[in-house]
Every structure is written in C-alpha cells, then in structure tokens.
C-alpha cells in the first residue's frame, strides 16, 4: 500500500515539475522534450513511472506524443467563443491573444452560385471578395474568405484590413450587424488552403460557414473560415437563458 502510494506521488510530482517548466517557457511550444530514457534517468524513476507522468501531461493538454517521433510541447490553443458576435480578430484579441492578419487578396468579382444564394443576390451579381490569413504565435491558424454584398462592398474595399476588422469597417459606414447564423463542421484541408496554412492537404480542420445579417435582416457578409484544429479549440457556456445549441449530422 505504501509502495503504491509513493509511486503515485512520484509520477504526480514529475508531472507537476514538467508542467511548471512548460508554463515557464523552459520548453517552448512545439519543442521536443528530452527522450523518455533521459527523463527517467534525470528524475531517478522507471520508464513506467515517467510514462504515467507524461500521460497526465497529455490529458492536461500540455504535451503531444507522436509515435516514432517523440514527445512535444503542445502548441498554444486559441479559443473560439461561440456565444459572441464578433470578428475572429476581435474575439481573439479580447482574450488577450496577439493575432496578425494578412490580406491575401481583395477584388470585386462575380459571386458563385453558393455565395449568391447565401447573400440572397441574383446569380452572377458582383460582390467584394476578401481573402485573409490569421497568424497566432507566429504560425498560420485560420484561412478566411469573406464576401460582402454591394453597395457596402465599394464603401469598404480600400480599408486596411490588417488592423481593422470587417465588422468595424462596416460599422464605420453606418452598417450595424445584428446577428449571424454559423455552422461549424469537421473537414479536410484542401490544397489551396493547405499552401497558405503550411499544413499537409488532407489534415483535419474545422470549417466555419457564417452568414451575417443587418438589423433589417439583410444578409450582408458570407464568410468561410478554415481553422486548424491543432491551433484552436471551440468553447461555449450553456445557461438556461444563454446560448442555445442544436446538434445535427454533418452533411
């Protein structure tokens, strides 16, 4: 009994020590930890005890174990709050994260059939297509394509979207957004987005499709964001009078 209790205390102490070093930056996000044999020798424990400590760190989301490659410090995770009506950049900045926005392309062009249906505009009508990349902790995390219907498209097409959110730009022209309908589903990283996000095509991602409406129920923005699951997690809080979630099968 004493032996079992001592063993449990030992692996927990190792887990706490490694967690403290990770949080203090001794081991940086994405960095490999020393080999298991090296760590077990340093702590003076068996491999079995060390592996229990690593399992605890993995359960806590601090490390990622990759078979055949080693143990790595988990990358920092952005939290995408479902209960707020804000842009990605505003939402993440509010949480204290520094997010860099890169404008990849912008142009007034014909909307596809899918976008025209989402914006409720005639097929073939033009809209502003704004393509952006969001970087966090020096790594690409989100690829985003937003379509803005006319006449508001012309009002904001020349704004500096590296420092101004799309919602803020619209607000500056007197357009207030009232609500948004959003669907988030699992997907696979397509080659064009993979190039921008610097991840292999086919990797698992979140795909967010959001349609934003004005006070008079006009669909003003149709937005698709491809979100790296390795960089972000989705959180929400439920309350009797709060956010309502409805589950459905992924189509």
Provide structural commentary.
The chain has helices at residues 2-23, 36-43, 47-59, 88-94, 113-119, 152-156, 166-172, 191-197; strands at residues 63-66, 70-73, 78-81, 99-110, 126-136, 139-149, 177-188, 204-214, 219-228, 232-235. The chain has 251 residues and is an alpha+beta fold. It has two domains: 2-73, Arc Repressor Mutant, subunit A (Orthogonal Bundle), CATH 1.10.10.10; 78-235, 3-Layer(aba) Sandwich (Chorismate lyase). Helix 1 (2-23) packs across helix 3 (47-59) and helix 2 packs across helix 3 (47-59).
Which terms summarize this structure?
single chain; Arc Repressor Mutant, subunit A; Chorismate lyase; 2 domains; two-stranded antiparallel sheet; 8 helices; disordered C terminus
Briefly characterize the structure:
With 251 residues, this protein is α+β, with helices and mostly antiparallel strands. Helices cover 30% and strands 33% of the residues. It has a 6-stranded antiparallel β-sheet with strand order 4-5-6-9-8-7. Strands 1-2 form a two-stranded antiparallel ribbon.
Sequence stretches where pLDDT stays below 50 over 5 or more residues: 79-83, 247-251
**CATH homology-level superfamily of the largest domain:** Chorismate lyase-like
- E-strand count: 10
Count helical runs.
8
* Residues in β-strands, percent: 25-35%
Kindly, what is the distance between the CA atoms of the first and last residues, rounded to a whole number of angstroms? 53 Å
Question: Helix share of residues?
Answer: 25-40%
Mean pLDDT: 81
Helix vs. strand class: alpha+beta
Largest sheet data: 6 strands, antiparallel
Question: How many domains in all?
Answer: 2
Q: What is the name of the CATH class of the largest domain?
A: Alpha Beta
| Strand ordering within the main sheet | 4-5-6-9-8-7
Rg from C-alpha positions?
23 Å
CATH architecture term of the largest domain: 3-Layer(aba) Sandwich
Outline, from the CA principal axes? elongated
Order of helices and strands: HHHEEEHEHEEHHEHEEE
CATH topology of the largest domain: Chorismate lyase
